[in-house]
Amino acid sequence: MRSFTDYLFFHTKNRRELVNITGAVESCLKKAKIQEGLCLVSAMHITAGIWVNDEEEGLKQDFMDLLERLAPPGDYRHHLTGEDNGDAHLKRTLTGYQAVLPVTGGKLDLGPWEQIFYAEFDGQRRKRVVIKIIGD
Amino acid sequence: MRSFTDYLFFHTKNRRELVNITGAVESCLKKAKIQEGLCLVSAMHITAGIWVNDEEEGLKQDFMDLLERLAPPGDYRHHLTGEDNGDAHLKRTLTGYQAVLPVTGGKLDLGPWEQIFYAEFDGQRRKRVVIKIIGD
Amino acid sequence: MRSFTDYLFFHTKNRRELVNITGAVESCLKKAKIQEGLCLVSAMHITAGIWVNDEEEGLKQDFMDLLERLAPPGDYRHHLTGEDNGDAHLKRTLTGYQAVLPVTGGKLDLGPWEQIFYAEFDGQRRKRVVIKIIGD
Are the Cβ atoms of C86 and B38 closer than 8 angstroms? Predict the structure, then answer.
């Protein structure tokens, strides 16, 4: 069994942002030289998620609107600690924060429109995603 | 390490449908001849999800009602592209679209009531789920 | 490839409870003697989830409040079976019920604040989480 570990770093311009990382994950897989296996992509900071969906501007806004409606910024108990990002923790929860991607014939075995997004909900600072690939 | 890849195809009669695929996943595992490992089940189309819960009619309706309440059909920005399935993309997001199942002693190591469902939110056309099993 | 399987048991005092299991998962990894791989943590009962977020009292309450708002106790079709825990099934759905954790250098490769929680939504009885680790 082979394994490969790498980290992607982000420092978004905006507080909330969707960054398409499909190409970056494919680059990791190329370096990993793994033909058959599983590729984990996981947001290491608890105010960011991973979203696998369509690269379409309108839908990306619809997704952010959904989260804004279900987990709006507001007066959270978490803010008693001095933080102001309670909504970002909840947005990560509803979005999910990791994807496990099949690797088949040396490629990410994604559906025709599946794109991988880093979903930042409290950005403008340095944050990290771990890529872990195991297989043969 | 051994690996196994297969695809399940769906063409549901209804636009929204829950299809119990536990038996189909077990059949894949039997073919894979893997005793200890991990089995990924992932919906490859971005308007479908994977739900692991109870095979109980009332609950299945409660689940669909929850999604209809949180992400109702409506006027989404995504529809400016000509699509009309914005809600289906959001329902996939809230449901989750994959499961990673432990394989122990050659069997899916599921809880007593865990059943695996393909959750279709925009069906009536051909769609796919990938099954990827790795282990020994 | 090596593999390791274990189960954590819970019998919570309260119906709804968050139990930090990071240390318990780390103990499993130590026993597994795996240096590089993937560690699956999955709630085997369909009224419980796995939440990876911050060990902060206010936020934990905010998270439970979010679920109470989105999937409140109420009159569910599931209750026609005699059950009264429809909301717990839906809370598991929104939370997610599993985490796949990277194992790097013999340790869980978690972000600085990532803690693993067993999220009980219908407790006061014996329930189970499976830990499955594969790697080398």
Answer: no
